[in-house]
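[Discussion] Sanity-checking designs against the backbone

I'm trying to build intuition for which residues belong where. Below is a C-alpha cell string of 137 positions. I'd appreciate it if someone posts a full sequence so I can compare it with mine line by line.
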C-alpha cells in the first residue's frame, strides 16, 4: 500500500446510481450540507479506517462556471468577484473561491470532519453534478 494520494488515485469509482447529486445553479451563492450525504461508506467518518474521513468528490460544471469552496459552517460569504488589486498586499479572505469552468470538472478530497458544507454559485443559470470519485478504506 502506498501513501494516501496513491491509494485514493488507484480507487477511482464510476458514477453509481443513488450516489450522484445534480443541483440547479443560479448567480446566488448557497451552502449545501454534505453531512447527511452517504458517499461510499456512510455519512459519518470511520475512525477505525486510516483516512476514513476522506472522500474524493468530482464536481462537474455542466452548463455554467461553478464558483465554490468547502467550509465547516453554512455562513455564505462566497464572492466570485473578490480579488486582490494588482500590487496589493497578499491576504486570505473568506470570500475568495475557486472556479470550475463550464464543461469541465475538478476532483477534490474532502475531510468529512471539517468539510461539512459545499458553498456554490453559478456564473449563470446551469447545472452542477457532484459524486464520489474515489474512497479509501
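Best answer:
Here's mine. Compare freely.
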Amino acid at each position: 500500500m502506498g501513501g494516501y494520494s496513491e491509494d485514493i488515485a488507484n480507487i477511482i469509482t464510476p458514477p453509481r446510481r443513488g450516489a450522484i447529486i445534480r443541483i440547479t445553479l443560479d448567480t446566488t451563492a448557497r451552502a449545501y450540507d454534505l453531512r447527511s450525504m452517504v458517499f461510499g461508506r456512510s455519512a459519518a467518518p470511520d475512525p477505525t479506517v486510516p483516512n476514513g474521513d476522506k472522500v474524493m468528490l468530482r464536481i462537474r460544471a455542466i452548463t455554467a462556471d461553478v464558483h465554490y469552496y468547502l467550509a465547516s459552517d453554512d455562513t455564505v460569504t462566497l464572492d466570485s468577484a473578490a480579488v486582490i488589486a494588482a500590487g496589493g498586499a497578499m491576504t486570505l479572505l473568506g470570500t475568495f473561491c475557486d472556479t470550475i469552468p463550464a464543461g469541465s470538472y475538478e476532483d477534490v478530497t474532502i475531510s468529512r470532519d471539517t468539510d461539512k458544507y459545499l458553498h456554490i454559485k453559478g456564473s449563470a443559470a446551469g447545472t452542477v453534478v457532484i459524486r464520489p470519485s474515489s474512497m479509501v478504506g
